[in-house]
Amino acid sequence: MKTLVATIGLLLVVAPAAAQTAAKPRPNAGRPAPKSEDPRAMLRAFEDAFTSVADRVTPAVVNVSGVPDRNAPPSGGEGEERFREYFGDELYERYFRRRPREDGRASGSGVIVDPKGYILTNNHVIENARDITVRLSDSRKFSATLVGRDPKTDLAVLKVDAPAPLPVAELADSDRLRVGQWAIAIGNPFGLDRTVTVGIISATARTRVGVATYENFIQTDASINPGNSGGPLLNLDGKVIGINTAIVASGQGIGFSIPINEARAVMRQLIARGRVVRGWLGVVIQDVTDELAGTFGVREREGVLVADVMKGGPAEAAGVRAGDVVVEFGGARIREVPDLQRRVAGIAPGQSAKLTVVRDSKPVPLTVTVAEMPAEDVTPVAVEPAADGFGLRAEALSPDLAERLKVPFTRGVVVLDVASGGPADAAGLRRGDVILEVARQPVSDPAELRRVLGALAPGESTLLYVHRPGAEGRNQYVVLERAARP
């Protein structure tokens, strides 16, 4: 709509200027002036395009509602706290968290993609819901069966049985999207059925939104609100380009949709087998920050750093080591964690893939046979890298401490305390972390740790390899910098 307003403003400004120019004598004044196009006709063309899409697709957009299962365990992870951050506490509690309406149900949107009754929606719309009902634009209601859901992409597929083929929305090719294209959203925001909003594609390939494990979102300024979740994002041809999923509560005109090509691939697997099978390497990875880049012989945002290699996993069998930087996988350059996550997940288990790692500042080609991701959530995890820092109290990892921390080794130095606001605090070190290496060398003696750190000049830094105990039990690299003198 902003573009339409700009167009109208341009017409209003240009028209008087053109009239003034016409009043002046010109060499070709005797020739008939070319007929100008009626501005209202241009606006009607826009109007007709939008109304045509709304008329054609609205019958395929459905209201999805269900009764929250009070006995279901809390979902956590992708669904709960992350959406709270983006919707805001008030809207989250009122709408997203499936707070019952007056009739005791919670609702969202969906789109019919197959005349047999298959419907695409968001996982968070139906998660932990029972007695799911789908209502069409002609007020018909059907009980829906959950075919399958995929929390890692926040997608779900429902199925309704109708006596006749249902109206469907045609799917586009989201790989051909360009920033600046028109985008039309249809859904049920705040329970207002079949609301149509218009905007543009603001960006593509958005990651780190924080609402799913695998993110490659379309960003749009078409108005999306709680209740739009699961509804379609469309192009001017009335074809589905995305499934609306999230908003940024603190911003205006910032909404996110799952590209339809990704949604289609997930849907096919859910229909075929009820679950999604993904490739798996068995590594813990983190982004290469500017502080880490020089240490590992790469540039910032060039590859992802392998913080840990899981025992018995495909990566270990291929020869991948902690400290390697993956810069290429399957013939594609890798720049950040989401790049590698998506590409590995897209490889069929059992297939081999070429990858290149930088080890000791030199490229090393490897071949890995990708395995199937285990049922448990053992995905390549993006570990938050630490920044600057120095200053801590530590002692050797004794068998007693190892038992209390529930770590399967007795080598290393345990961080007992981190001074608030000090260098180690700024580095991200925490009480209970186990320092395994300093300057790429194993360390088990606090005196040795103090010696290496003490040799650093103000402003110099060194690399620590740290194990963080807990449910995940993950390893990560941090850069520890000695504070410069004032």
Instruction: Give the strand line-up of the largest sheet.
Output: 5-4-1-2-3-7-6
Span from first to last CA? 54 Å
* Number of separate strands: 27
Uncertain segments are 1-24, 73-88, 90-104, 376-389
Overall domain count: 3
Q: What structural keywords apply?
A:
Pdz3 Domain, 3 domains, 7-stranded antiparallel sheet, 27 strands
Give a structural overview.
- The protein is of the alpha+beta class and 486 residues long.
- The chain folds into 3 domains: 1-7 and 39-275, Beta Barrel (Thrombin, subunit H); 279-372, Pdz3 Domain (Roll); 392-481, Pdz3 Domain, CATH 2.30.42.10.
- Helix content is 24%, strand content 31%.
- The chain contains 12 helices and 27 strands.
- It has a 7-stranded antiparallel beta sheet with strand order 5-4-1-2-3-7-6. It has a 6-stranded antiparallel β-barrel with strand order 8-9-10-13-12-11. Strands 15, 16, 17, 18, 19 and 20 form a 6-stranded antiparallel beta sheet that branches.
- Helix 3 crosses helix 4.
How are the SSEs placed, and which strands pair?
Elements (H helix, E strand, L loop, with lengths): L1 H22 L15 H19 L3 E8 L12 H7 L1 H8 L9 E9 L3 E5 H4 L2 E7 L5 E3 L1 E6 L4 E5 L22 E6 L7 E12 L10 E4 L11 E3 L5 E8 L7 E5 H14 L5 E2 L2 E5 L2 H7 L7 E6 L4 H5 L6 E5 L2 E2 L3 H9 L6 E8 L2 E8 L1 E2 L19 E5 L2 H7 L7 E6 L4 H5 L6 E5 L2 E2 L3 H9 L6 E8 L5 E8 L5
Antiparallel strand pairs: 1-2, 1-4, 2-3, 3-7, 4-5, 6-7, 8-9, 8-11, 9-10, 10-13, 11-12, 12-13, 14-21, 15-16, 16-17, 17-18, 17-19, 19-20, 22-23, 23-24, 24-25, 24-26, 26-27
